[in-house]
Amino acid sequence: MSPKPDVSVERKQQIYEAAITCFSQKGYHLTTMDDIAAAAGLSKGSLYWYFKGKKEMFLSLFEAMMAPIGQAWAGIVADDNSSATDKLLTSLGLFSGSIEEFIPLFGVMMEAWAQTRHDADVQRLMREFYRPYLDMMTRIIEQGIASGEFQASAPEAMAFAIMNLFDGITLALGMGVADVNGQQLVNAARDLVLRGLGVEQMDG
Hints:
Elements: H1 8-30, H2 33-40, H3 44-50, H4 54-78, H5 84-116, H6 120-147, H7 155-175, H8 182-196
């Protein structure tokens, strides 16, 4: 008898897509596992085969969404043939290219984090998630300082400020409080970052 094909990856993606739909329509708090199972066309038992509950599903969904960005960014940082300025601009371009994907879900993410922020699992995930990104931005800034491209005295603090600047843009767009075009906001933030690092303004 031939072994059964492993459909776990496809099944998780099916569940993720259903969860995104439900979270977007009802919010994190009001969405139930029954809702997600119905949207996915699966039994609730099938969901519990992959996830212990809604919180674990949400955390897994968040990690799955961020994984491609993290992998792409790691490749940018590891490129020994690129200047720090090029790495920074490419990194900001990566963010700009993915922001539209996250805007519809960012309000849901804020709701979920607000309800689970004292949860040890959520706190651990946020620390483990954020640290590699902060390290990558710090490495870019340190390279720029060493090469004379950037002017900064505290690389990690500057990296943290840059990342929070773009997190704030995503939050503002996701909550619908920004009346400015998203790309205009990203471009303005990029100009602020370049000026803050002492880089001559570049076209585009």
